[in-house]
Specification:
single chain; alpha/beta; Aspartate Aminotransferase, domain 2; seven-stranded mixed β-sheet; binds pyridoxal-5'-phosphate
Length: about 400
């Protein structure tokens, strides 16, 4: 074995952030519920308060359990620094509002997460930040928009709900050439499948609520990358107050121990399910980057080490009623507005990612009426396939 070789993803999922912390006492990271941290020595207290010495002062700023969570994901993403927030949207808001100034310009794509899209279209324009949203897979148009001026390039891949793929290396390069900060939402891929910092991004962020936590029992968000940028985002978060709570940090940490195992299983389950659906007569189209028929397959193959657990499919009978019929008959799927958990989760964009849009808006965005988003869990592929087959047989 090479010296100084980094431990593998499985080892890091289990140990990163914890090995120094646990030393000679407990073997699991304690949930520290204390709001404040006491000091008898006022000089020491002041040094910690001024950031000259390590330590914790007040729970809105930092907390030991939360710090271990941040450290684990930081090391899985191969980043200098990380900071967290109460939710994915919390960390996305802190990132955008701490780094952008009035008069500046964001370049992004039309298919970002619904909440992110609302920040772009509703809140950033209010403070005079210009946002250009390009057609998601039109790389030439995105590059052209970046070259016209760009302070922050915001990318997300694979996207929600039609699982489109962006070429991160190509676009990050264009962003850097224009002097932009390059931010990537890596929620769908996780660092097990894709490492945006290695492909040229400055910041990588997550809704930890999804695959990182993996058990649909805690909300959280985290951003990793360049330490100067992270400092600004942390400062904005500590003042505005969307802090991740210690109990959620603990649940996310515990979930992350099995991250590599879960993602590997979800990758292989999703690929098997996608292949099955692609050959099914009651399915019109399957969106999964692991299929050779997917328009982003070659880019995905180049930049991802697995194609992820997310897929979506369009029914041959393109109606919302047909969606209801299939969902009602699925035995092994929660019908819910979530994704990335150990249980399979299914739902239409109309009630999940694109609940804010009208039917016409969704159709204009290329989201078919009968689309079902399917977040593959860690069940056995044969059971998921059998379940889908039985549910599809209920369609006329
Ligand atoms: C869910 C999600 C978010 C928002 O995360 P919350 O934890 O729900 O605030 C952001 N980006 C993507 C890709 C998501 O799936």
């Amino acid at each position: 074995m090479k010296k100084n070789q980094l431990p593998g993803n499985g080892t890091r999922s289990v140990w990163a952030g914890e090995e120094e912390y646990l030393m000679d006492s407990v073997t699991q990271v304690p949930v520290v519920h204390s709001v404040s941290f006491g000091y008898k020595d006022v000089t020491h207290w002041q040094q910690v308060a001024l950031g000259e010495k390590e330590g914790h002062i007040y729970g809105r700023n930092t907390n030991p359990t939360v710090s271990v969570f941040e450290d684990k994901i930081r090391r899985l993403e191969g980043a200098e620094a990380a900071t967290s927030a109460a939710t994915g949207m919390g960390i996305i808001s802190c990132t955008l509002f701490s780094l952008l100034l009035p008069g500046q310009k964001v370049v992004s794509v039309k298919d970002t997460y619904g909440g992110t899209n609302k920040i772009f279209t509703e809140f950033l324009p209010r403070i005079n930040v210009n946002v250009a949203l390009c057609d998601t897979t039109d790389h030439d148009a995105i590059e052209k928009e970046i070259a016209d001026g760009c302070d922050l390039l915001y990318l997300e891949t694979p996207t929600n709900p039609t699982i489109k793929i962006l070429d991160l290396e190509r676009l990050a390069k264009a962003g850097k050439n224009a002097g932009a900060v390059v931010v990537v939402d890596n929620t769908f891929a996780t660092p097990i499948n894709q490492r945006p910092l290695d492909l040229g991004a400055d910041l990588v962020l997550h809704s930890a609520t999804k695959f990182l936590g993996g058990h649909a029992d805690a909300l959280g968000g985290v951003v990793c990358g360049d330490s100067e940028l992270i400092k600004k985002i942390y400062h904005y978060r500590e003042i505005t107050g969307a802090t991740l709570d210690p109990m959620s940090a603990y649940l996310l940490l515990r979930g992350m121990k099995t991250l590599e195992l879960r993602i590997q299983r979800q990758n292989s389950n999703a690929l098997e399910v996608a292949k099955f659906l692609e050959s099914h007569p009651k399915i019109k189209k399957v969106f999964y980057p692991g299929l050779e028929s997917h328009e982003g397959h070659d880019i995905a193959k180049k930049q991802m080490s697995g194609f992820g657990g997310m897929l979506s499919f369009m029914l041959a009978e393109d109606t919302f009623e047909a969606v209801g019929t299939v969902l009602k008959h699925l035995k092994y799927a929660h019908c819910a507005a979530n994704l990335g958990a150990v249980e399979t989760i299914a739902g239409p964009p109309a009630t999940t990612s694109h609940v804010e849009c009208t039917r016409e808006e969704r159709l204009r965005m290329g989201i078919p009426e009968s689309l079902i988003r399917y977040s593959t869990g860690i069940e056995n592929a044969a059971d998921l396939i059998g379940d889908l087959d039985a549910a599809l047989s209920k369609l006329p």
